[in-house]
Amino acid sequence: MPTTIHDVAKKLNISIYTVSRALDGYEDVADQTRELVIKTSNEMGYVPNRAARQLRRQKTETIGFILPSISKRFNEPFFTEFVSGLGEELSSKNFDLLISNATTDDAERNLYRRWVNSRKVDGFILSRIRRHDWRVNFLSEWGIPFVALGKSQDVVKYPCVHIEASDAYLELVRHIQGNGFSRFAFVGGPNDLMNQIDRLKWFKSALKKSGMEVDRINVVSTDMSSTGGYEAAQTLLSGSAPPDAILSVNDETALGVLHAAHEQGLIVGKDIAVAGFDGIQDSHHTEPALTTLEIPIAQIARQLVQMLLGCLNDPSSETREIIVQPELLIRASTGQ
């Protein structure tokens, strides 16, 4: 017969109540006792009934992640690495990850409403934050714990990881300028996305500090896909005064820019400089290798999980904001 909680309690000569609360992580159990209960349970092969534990604690032990409608694709390299980090960290904490996607804004809103109303998850992790993000206000109004990669311009304060890349952009622009490139363009994303707002601001500031002006015709919005980057670069490079340096809002967009440059017969790194942002693993393997501003995607995902679980354990804890500064990875796509 399988080992039961009664067997563990009898072995340790303590109450079933104490064993249960030790395994559930309650703080009123001494650390030494909890460690002994966990060790003994593992040695005896006792596996707690998770459904019963969830019912007792009124928790699902599940965290939700809904791919924003603005993104639409889970096979985007950034999200592959991001979701991997979320899953690994949640698994190590005995939590599950419930993921879904929505192709329209209405579908995304319905998903959030349904998950909140049915209490499918204990909290949410948000990404691709918008300037004024309805998710932030909706979850705050319902009292649902959440954390985010990115900081909106809403008045609501919430735990987040915020990217600060003004210095990194300046370093990138000066590196490219030092290699003889001078006509800069920016291939960005949707205008209400904080990634676009922040990165375009840093791009403009870096150019100004480097003695250059931003030509509005050389700032193009896309859907942040490689196809969008390809189409934007085709338009830019077919103009009467094409840029000789294109910075992209993310690495995937930059992949499309590289493809368009090759089609135009340009030698990337010599005739034109191309750079991205994020530092996805694929950026190592482009031809030529892509210069990028790297952020630790999987590590950020794990930090967000830790922040959210901290909120669940202590709802009154102080709102935290972690600032991450990218690292410039210089590769052949911006010259030698």
Please tell me about this protein's structure.
A 6-stranded parallel beta sheet has the order 2-1-3-4-5-11, with helices on both faces. It has a 6-stranded mixed beta sheet with strand order 7-6-8-9-10-12, sandwiched between helices. With 336 residues, it is an alpha/beta fold. The chain contains 12 helices and 12 strands. The protein folds into 3 domains: 5-57, lambda repressor-like DNA-binding domains (434 Repressor (Amino-terminal Domain)); 62-163 and 297-325, 3-Layer(aba) Sandwich (Rossmann fold), CATH 3.40.50.2300; 166-295 and 328-334, Response regulator (Rossmann fold, 3-Layer(aba) Sandwich). The radius of gyration is 24 Å and the shape is elongated. Strand 8 (245-248), helix 11 (251-263) and strand 9 (273-278) form a beta-alpha-beta unit. Helices cover 44% and strands 16% of the residues.
